[in-house]
Amino acid sequence: MAGTTAFIINGTNISVVISGFDIEGLGNSVSPGVNGINFLNGASLIVRNTKIRGFRNGYGIDFRPAPMRSCSFTGAADFTLTDSNVAQNTGFGMIINGAATTARVGNTTVTNDGTGITLLGSATVKSYGDNRLDGNTTDGAFSSILPKDRARRYAPYP
Predict the structure, then answer these.
(1) Domain locations in the chain as residue ranges
(2) Is 81 within 8 Å of 103 (Cβ atoms)?
C-alpha cells in the first residue's frame, strides 16, 4: 500500500464489512502506506479476521466520521473489530473519535504500535474481555468490559 490508504469508507448511511484481509502498510519501504482503514462517513464498520500492520505515516484504523474532524458530529457510528491483529503502526493502532461513536473489540491483538488505542470526542471502545492490548509505546485503554455472556455475539452479520 505504498503512499496510500488501503480502505477508505465514505458514504452516507452505508454499512461496510471487511473480512479476511492482510493489510500491509510496507512500513520499512521508501513509500509506506498512510492508513490501513480510514472511516470518513457511514453508519457502521465491521472488521473481522484481518491483519492491519506496518503503517508508518498514519494509523492502522482511523475511525473518525467526517463531521467529527471538525468536532460537530451528532449522529451515531458503530465500529466492531473481531478476531484481528493491529500491529507495527507508527502513529496509532486505532484512533476512535465521536461523542456518539461506539467501538466493540473482541479476540483482537493490538501491539507494537505508537499508541494502541486513542479515544477522542467522548468515543467509547468496549472490550469483550478477550483482547491483548500491550507492547505499544503507549497502550491506551478500553472504556469498559462487556459481560462474558455477550462475548460470542460480536457482530451482526449483514
Answers:
(1) 7-25+32-142
(2) yes
